[in-house]
Model the fold of this input.
Amino acid sequence: MIFFFVLLISMFLSLAVQTFIGPLPMIGARVLLMPIIMFYGSLALPTPGMLALCFCGGLMWDALHTQIVDGNVEIALGWSIMLYAVLGTLMSGFRPLFQRGRWEIHCLLSGVCTSVIVLAEYLMITFRREPVVFVFNKEIWWRIGGAGLIAMLLSPLFFFALNYLAFMVGYDPQPERRAKRAR
Amino acid sequence: MSRRIVIPSVIVFLALTTLILLLSPHNLRRVQAGFLGLISPFLHTGSNVEKKYRGFREGLKSIEQLEDENKRLLIANKEMSATNQTLRGLEAENNRLRKALGYQGRTEFTLLPARVISRDSSTWYNQIMIDRGSHDHITDDMPVLNEEGLVGKTTVVSAHSSLVVLIADETCGVAAHAEGSREQGIVRGERTHNGGGIPTVGFNFLSKLANLKPGQSVYTSGTGGVFPPGVLVGQVKDFKVGALDSYATIVPAVDLTTLEDVFVVVGHSK
Done:
């Protein structure tokens, strides 16, 4: 329970921090820190915790980013919650492997899922804006892929730091690894 | 994990999500304003730290550099004051003449200075957050500009901060006209900006005979009532004629990527 709140506060702070990091020059991709923590939470927490984290993460994300112009809501508040829950469930499927102490595939997956979030956002605004024009040039692909690539590179660092935080508050996200070491 | 825990948690999750998805735009604004109020103290602190760091780096200049800069700024300030005085006189004269002709006098607007406390972290939107909110009498759809030209307009307003959608965003449309011609159109942001470079905006719905030239200035026309007339939007970069109308690409007068201080047009004072 304590670790859930630690993750929630970390997500909130990372959302504030990432607003100060501008897009990367030349490729225009953003550094998205909050999804990395949320995906880590999907691995470290059991299903109810994962769902609660996805709910809070999606709500915070949409509350900060949903655009209302001239009274029109472009993307409804709450769509990110659904998307995060789907991706969180996908990550959660790899939880047994994570509990055994493996993290490599999870870091890769965290990057892929971050790209999926950016792609889904792009598709949503494309469908909502008129005329519906699918622009898929190099810049768009870089923004989508670049965000995932950055998340993939940062994930090991975040996973390590969050594992340490879990240890500090007395939560063990990888119990099988510890048991194996004890043997 | 036991199904007795997982199934109820999934049901609660779906119920809460459905509730959120069904929120009306009015309630959505309230949720957003509430969250902005929650996060803005952190953004204020972050912005102050960033400013102090920048100030420290700039403070490392030599005395000669500072003296030179001070001299330049004093001259620029005097020039601006003189120009401002002349323009105020012309504005008053213009209003008198409009009144004499039976036209409604143009209103002078009051500017409220605001500081940018964060730039948007999402990939597809062009927004900034400023440190002024409803406590400073800011409401939705108020124009935002700086000394160089038009910046955007306010969207979500909380007590002490507001979101501003920039003119480089696809959702922000501005009625504008080109200098030295009677051409009017809509300035709207573009989704891609050629590799994250200087954002450009499109000037749409121009007549095929518009024939705009690169470098020509584009100003707000005041149509629509949100933006005051005569604010510089940018300069024409290129001009293309289409099948039914023509289109120009504009480089905004304001560097939207490095904004620090802006002004909100809070009201009209006659």
The mean pLDDT of chain A is 87.
